[in-house]
């Protein structure tokens, strides 16, 4: 496990697994956990043998937020000088598709960690929320921005301003979650979705995720321009030739992820 203490890391086929493992704190994200999650995600990201990453927690808690006990006594200046949550930007910048498999609490920074992933699967026990206002702060890992983009202003505003939790069914209706499954089936479902993604040509996956990311940040014209360039670049990959030849020859493709 590369000496990780607050997460477990495992590679199964082309899928990299990161399991948050601080049960005594409901997987609250302290500095060590942040560093370990980011390091593990970046290690998978530079490994050509990894085509998808799953991030999960336990049945009781995906992550109950940033670690309140670690933050409590900090000043605003401490937060700035230590760039307290800065490393999470590197998690969001991972090129490999990331699937969040959420059961139990995904609160505060835990909800924001899920929002940095590309696909969110939930167990029927999942509860999402941004309770920060109750602590006298606000979401600090992108929650106000990504929730507005994902859910629209009014749903996001209600969640952030009230701090209330939404259950899995409401999260699915709101478009946050792709699918809700029984808690006992969550990891199998995550494995299946991750494997489906990971078998696809890696250059196409990187390009697709990059283009999807641009959609959240740019005008339509800029985004379409980016998409067209990324589309053209894929015609210089072996997997594009193989994918299209396999279609023409009516056989299954055999990708080299090149
Ligand atoms: N931080 C630290 N410890 C935590 C956290 C947390 N976020 N959540 C739970 N724990 C600890 C508890 O203190 C408790 O420890 P102990 O047994 O030593 O007292 C243990 O985990 C178990 O928790 P509970 O006994 O409270 O379990 P319950 O089942 O009774 O309740 C809840 C579960 C409802 C999830 C409850 O634990 C809770 O409300 N937790 C806090 C949720 C929260 O407010 N999260 C937001 C945190 S702030 C945040 O994420 C900001 C993100 C970005 C900030 C950026 C700033 C720059």
UniProtKB/TrEMBL annotation:
<dbReference type="InterPro" id="IPR018376">
    <property type="entry name" value="Enoyl-CoA_hyd/isom_CS"/>
</dbReference>
<dbReference type="InterPro" id="IPR014748">
    <property type="entry name" value="Enoyl-CoA_hydra_C"/>
</dbReference>
<keyword id="KW-0276">Fatty acid metabolism</keyword>
<dbReference type="InterPro" id="IPR001753">
    <property type="entry name" value="Enoyl-CoA_hydra/iso"/>
</dbReference>
<keyword id="KW-0443">Lipid metabolism</keyword>
<dbReference type="InterPro" id="IPR029045">
    <property type="entry name" value="ClpP/crotonase-like_dom_sf"/>
</dbReference>
<protein>
    <recommendedName>
        <fullName>Probable enoyl-CoA hydratase echA8</fullName>
        <ecNumber>4.2.1.17</ecNumber>
    </recommendedName>
</protein>
<dbReference type="GO" id="GO:0006635">
    <property type="term" value="P:fatty acid beta-oxidation"/>
</dbReference>
<comment type="function">
    <text>Could possibly oxidize fatty acids using specific components.</text>
</comment>
<dbReference type="GO" id="GO:0004300">
    <property type="term" value="F:enoyl-CoA hydratase activity"/>
</dbReference>
<dbReference type="Pfam" id="PF00378">
    <property type="entry name" value="ECH_1"/>
</dbReference>
<keyword id="KW-0456">Lyase</keyword>
<comment type="similarity">
    <text>Belongs to the enoyl-CoA hydratase/isomerase family.</text>
</comment>
């Amino acid at each position: 496990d590369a000496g990780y203490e607050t997460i477990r890391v495992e590679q199964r086929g082309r899928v990299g697994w990161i399991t948050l493992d601080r049960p005594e704190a409901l997987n609250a994200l302290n500095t060590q956990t942040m560093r370990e999650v980011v390091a593990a995600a970046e290690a998978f990201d530079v490994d050509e043998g990894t085509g998808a990453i799953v991030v999960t927690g336990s049945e009781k808690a995906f992550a109950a937020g940033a670690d309140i006990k670690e933050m409590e006594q900090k000043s605003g200046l401490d937060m700035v000088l230590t760039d307290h949550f800065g490393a999470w930007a590197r998690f969001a910048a991972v090129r490999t598709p990331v699937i969040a498999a959420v059961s139990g609490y995904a609160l505060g920074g835990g909800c924001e960690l899920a929002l940095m992933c590309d696909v969110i699967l939930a167990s029927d026990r999942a509860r999402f929320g941004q309770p920060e206002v109750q602590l006298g702060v606000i979401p600090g890992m992108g929650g106000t921005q990504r929730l507005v983009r994902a859910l629209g202003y009014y749903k996001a505003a209600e969640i952030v301003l009230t701090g209330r939790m939404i259950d899995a069914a409401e999260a699915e209706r709101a478009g946050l979650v792709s699918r809700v499954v029984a808690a006992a089936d969550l990891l199998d479902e995550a494995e299946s979705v991750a494997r489906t993604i990971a078998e696809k040509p890696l250059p196409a996956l990187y390009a697709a995720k990059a283009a999807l990311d641009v959609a959240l940040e740019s005008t339509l014209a800029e985004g379409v321009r980016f998409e067209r360039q990324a589309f053209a670049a894929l015609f210089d990959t072996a997997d594009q030739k193989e994918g299209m030849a396999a279609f023409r020859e009516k056989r299954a493709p055999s990708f080299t992820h090149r």
